[in-house]
Design brief:
The complex is a heterodimer of chains A (145) and B (393).
Chain A (H helix, E strand, L loop, with lengths): L4 E4 L15 E5 L5 E2 L17 E5 L3 E10 L16 E8 L4 E7 L13 E11 L3 E10 L3
Parallel strand pairs in A: 1-9, 7-9
Antiparallel strand pairs in A: 2-3, 2-4, 5-6, 5-8, 6-7, 8-9
Chain B lengths: L4 E12 L5 H16 L8 E5 L6 H4 L1 H10 L4 E5 L5 H14 L5 E8 L17 H7 L4 H16 L3 H15 L13 H6 L2 E3 L2 E2 L8 E9 L1 H6 L6 E7 L28 H13 L8 E4 L4 H10 L8 H7 L15 H5 L3 H17 L12 E7 L5 E7 L1
Parallel strand pairs in B: 2-3, 2-4, 9-10
Antiparallel strand pairs in B: 1-7, 1-8, 4-7, 5-6, 8-11, 10-11
Helix pairs in contact in B: 1-3, 4-14, 6-11, 7-11
Classes of the chains: A mainly beta (145), B alpha/beta (393).
Chain lengths: 145, 393
Amino acid sequence: MTAKKKEPAIEGWFTMDSDKPHLLGSKCCDCGTFYFPKQKNFCKNPSCNGEEFEEVKLSRTGKVWSFTNSCYKPPEPFVAAEPFVPYTIAAVELEAEKMTVLGQVVEGVNVSDLKAGMEMELVLDTLYEDDESEKITWKWKPVSA
Amino acid sequence: MSNDIAIIGVGMHPWGKWGKNFVEYGVKAARDAIKDAGIDWKDVQFVSGAATMRCGYPGYVAGATFAQALGWQGAEVNTSYAACASGSQALAAARAKILSGECEVALVVGADTTPKGFLAPQKGRRPDDPDWVRFHLGITNPTYFALYARRRMEMYGDTQDDFAMVKVKNAEHGFSNPYARYKKKFTAEDVAASAMVADPLRLMDICATSDGGAALIVCSMEYAKKIGKADAVKVAAISTVTPTYASSVIEMPDIATDSGAIVDAQSFRAALPVKAYEEAGIGPEDISLAEVYDLSTALELDWIEDLQLCERGQAAQLVREGATKIGGRLPINTSGGLACFGEAVPAQAISQICELTWQLRGEAGDRQVANANVGITANQGLFGHGSSVIVKK
């Protein structure tokens, strides 16, 4: 049995570098404000008329702002494994970008393992599999783990 | 110049899962409000409806739908949609019409019939829609409420027992409210025994969705005098401000906050009442009671602080002291709140004002707060919609 092809669950939102992945955001060429997901047309800073953006790799580590879990299977378009396995979720603050990004936390890390301020890093993991491929997303992982 | 308008009539349809057409709830609430005002339906010159997105075309044109159901009589109509703040925007439209002199008396009405089960996004693959993205990645509505709740625990030392006390308090308040859906005096044990949904929030920490309807009759102060209601409760302020960039708190349905790297980060919830206080010339120290949007038990605590009714991080202490109960020094959600009602989106902001009106008139029965002079509401919905309304004697 051959390994399934790995594909991003959402195209263009993160690098597929399995060692040191980054979220792909954008930065306004005029005022320098960061965006995730990418802003493509008009800057949302009310004092800026910027219309040009460059793609930037966002910091791949940050600190926990808050965290929770999902004890029940979410509705579609979530694709759940059967039986459903609860997962942990973290909101992580990126220091340079001063931005909080949500994501699932890697399997095996529970709510009781997390604290606000804890250092987290971005990793790639499976969101779900279909017949042809493994759909990849970003997840947060405690740096110490 | 005073920008006050009078609330001369209020009416509601009981919240529940009745499964009827939303129009029926709205018309019942409107007829009650008209009767309460002591006017004739044909005296109403402007119908300001709060829209529902779940009931097809009649819901999109709610103002006209209610006007037709009450019997076309030539009134002008308006329909507002602003998620949870729809009712407040409908009220703001009525106030603008009254203060500009274009009409004297207006009906503000909203009602909803909610589908069974979870609220889910529209079908189809849509990676440009943040609502689609977050559900695809497994981020549901309770996720956001739970992140806020956990943040309180981490920052201020709040506990799940504190959150349970909010539910117990609201259940006690709503017990005798004839319009509440859940009328049971739940205990802290009941909350603790309910299923964990999104740690630290259990099923009984999170509000349900309901059917319901609420309506107001509002008018110019001159009209109120003319019909002998010069001492009616007044709308002193309506704030429907949008957030100021950059928004610092992760908001449903977004996957990330704005970046505060270039522009300082702001809190939207805290900004909402600021404009209301300024407009009313009233401060937090003048507030007798508040109706706040308790989508979760912990969120009620955030609102108490956002309304500046206590220092940041102190709201749980108020609950522990019993200050937020009826009979305490700062009763919160005397109606029973969303905990006892469940959310009927276009009716909810209007129902908050109904409760404050009954309280300020001294007509709240078993729920009556002594010496209620000034009340404030707060709510927030998707995409930068929110409202805060101040009602005074």
